[in-house]
Amino acid sequence: MIFLNPAVLFGLLAAAIPVLIHMLNLRKLKKVDFSTLKFLKELQKSKIRRIKFKQWLLLALRVLIILFTVFAFARPTLKGIALAGTTSASKTSAVIILDNSFSMSLVESEGSLFNQAKSEIVKILSQLKEGDDAEIIFTSNSKETVNKLTKNISSLKNRINESDISTVTGNITQAIEKGLSILSSSKNFNKELFVLSDFQKESFAELSKLKSVDMEDIRLYKINFGGKNYQNIGIDKLNLGTQIFEKNKPIVFNTKITNYSSDNIKDIIVSLFINGDRKTQKNINLNAGATASLELIAEVNTSGFINAFLEIEDDNISLDNRRYINFYIPSKIDVGLFSDNQVDVQFINAVLRSSKNIDEIKTNEHKTNQLASIELSKLDLIIFLPSNNRTNLKRLNDFINSGGGLLLLPGNSINEKDFNNILSNLSITANVTALGTKLANDNYAVFDKVDFEHPVFENIFSKKNKNEIDSPNILYHFNIDYKDIVKKIISLNDNSSFLTELKIGEGKVIIFNTAPSLEWSNFPIKGIFAPLLNKSIYYLASEDNSINNFIAGNEIKIKAGNYKGLIEIIKPNKASEFITLDDKSNYNFVNYSSADQTGFYNVRNKKDTISVFSVNTNPAESQQEYLNDDQIEDYLNKINFTGKYISIDKSEEIISVIQKARFGSEFWKILIIIALILALIEMLVSKSSKRDIAEITK
User: pLDDT tens digit string along 231-278?
Assistant: First the structure.
């Protein structure tokens, strides 16, 4: 026998009160006037004995009343015993964890695993009695949701009936540890944790030891809905092979598709949709467990935000049969051209204002000292040709850190010291030295190593002349010894980097080490100058689309633009959420934690779409690897679980197993009834004793 409220047992000390009162009454002497002979004759010994007996009986009754009352409030419980009609079943606290990740959407002849689990939970809730409490934890949002036990069982049934599969990967370990913490604070005798899942290995990734949690009296039921193999093909990845996006130019899509089943599958149709239209498709065959890498190419003839997705035919699990991606094709690139001398930009202007670019590129020409006054956020990229180090570059630095692109070239008259300071002010650590002599044609550097895989060389060369460049003669240039991690796109034969790319915050920077001046080199009049400048501009103006592709449930950083006030996020189901950007916000990027649906999300201000991002499922949910009982017991040992572990398969009679494992009957009601009966007897005996005493003392 155990007591569910053992602290109440201190009330047993109150049983000493009637004893103390009885002892004090024995010591009191009462003076009675009587005739000695008359009293002795009339006094009957039997009455005195009866009075004394009743007084001791009253003492015993009063002590017992206190004892039974205290014991009743301490809630004594007998393990494994149920006395029908006389005891009440021990109160139960139940926490039910439901795995609502999309691997539970597998459809069998009895319905989906998720719907089968929901049906069993309703049965478990229906077994609870009045006074019991329970709570539901969904694995997809176990971290964010505040859970607590409730006696409103009907509301829990409604929550279960209204629940649906989530695209967010469930974290069962987190849910279990949360459920154990909730139950450890319960005062009820039966503490039960039910986990209904397919028990994928991926969902048991995180562990933490719950040293401060009392788990000895908790029963953990593992109700298994997984372990079976089924036919499932999933799209694991969808990336863009193209990094420079231009209208009416081909876009390369790279994907990986895996056959997660144990059977070979033939004639899988893979379709690519762009802005809702099917653009291309391929047929593939996949052996059991095999992964295929595919490349699909499609031309896009529109500009703006482009939404694309890859799709395969439905199978047993449909949520991994589609994968989303998005990118942006500018209708016109806004270029800010900042310099101090017209000679520095004459060749650049010739390229930007050519017939090829006049409709594609809008050039905004300014002096370098205007960097502090112009709204840089309206520009797609900046071409900067400094002639000295007198310009405040803080706003330019902020522009790059927020995702802007910078094309940096030295001005014709700048020296190495000033250029070194320019780099330092842009948070680029380097040492700059000057090499060569201006206008000296007898000694020059030429191209040595070229990274032809870099996007700036995309579609520049014909297949016949691929990887061939007519190198310019570099008479004078800066040898920039970068201390940061950089990509050397073109290196010269003196080991200096002619063309370099590096990241600053969220932005990209491309640096030439020579000025576009004939005093420095003949680069501006070489055939490679115009296409290389063009491609660099398009590359810097293109967004890094890897930051716009996220996994459902993860906190993500979305581009919100340099905008103050209210922005709207439109989810795939067309529901809207609003975020207010105050003065302390980073207006270019906002942390967002409600991406719980797959598809395309639109970020808008009052007038325009600021950005679009795509959200996909976690490919780990497609895997058919499950935990067995030994592995789960090992996990429970690692978190110091000391309660009872019970494993049940969904094919068993789940309710029957639970009822057999449940134990304990409280008999506080019996003790209360006994206390009331004793109180009634005490009242009758007390009245009788008072009458006897009154007769003697007449």
Answer: 899 999 999 988 888 888 899 999 999 999 889 999 999 999 999 999
Q: Residues for the chain: how many in total?
A: 698
The CA–CA distances, whole Å, from 631 to 103, 192, 200, 204, 264 equal 20, 21, 11, 10, 30
What tens digit of pLDDT does each residue of 561-598 get? 666 778 899 999 999 999 887 655 554 678 888 899 99
Q: What is the helix, strand, coil percentage profile of the chain, to 5?
A: 30, 30, 40
pLDDT at residue 507 is higher than 60:
yes
Instruction: Please report which confidence band the pLDDT of residue 55 belongs to, taking 50, 70 and 90 as the band edges.
Output: confident
Domain(s) labelled CATH 2.60.40.10 in the chain stretch across: 233-330
> Does the pLDDT value for residue 86 go beyond 50?
no
d(CA 670, CA 321): 62
CATH 3.40.50.880 location in the chain: 333-541
Q: Does domain 333-541 correspond to CATH entry 3.40.50.1100?
A: no
- Output the six-digit token pair for 322: 């589609």
Selecting from 2.30.22.10, 2.40.440.10, 2.60.40.10, 3.30.420.40, what CATH number does the domain 233-330 have? 2.60.40.10
> Of residues 35 and 75, which shows the higher confidence score?
75
Paired tokens of 588: 């270019």
Residues 452-481, mean pLDDT to the nearest whole number: 85
- Rounded Cα distance, 582 and 564, in Å: 6
Tokens of 634: 């090992």
Write down the architecture of domain 91-221+626-663 according to CATH. Answer: 3-Layer(aba) Sandwich (3.40)
Q: From start to end of 409-492, where are the E strands? A: 430-436, 447-450, 476-482, 487-492
In terms of average pLDDT, the best of 13-22, 618-627, 679-688 is 618-627
Strand partners, 551: 616
Specify the CATH number of the domain 547-616.
Answer: 2.60.40.1930
Q: How far is CA 412 from CA 41, 443, 458, in A?
A: 142, 19, 29
Residue ranges of the chain that CATH labels 3.40.50.410? 91-221+626-663
Distances from the Cα of 360 to the Cα of 308, 334, 369, 382, 596, angstroms: 23, 9, 27, 16, 37
- Helix, strand or coil, per DSSP, at residue 206: coil
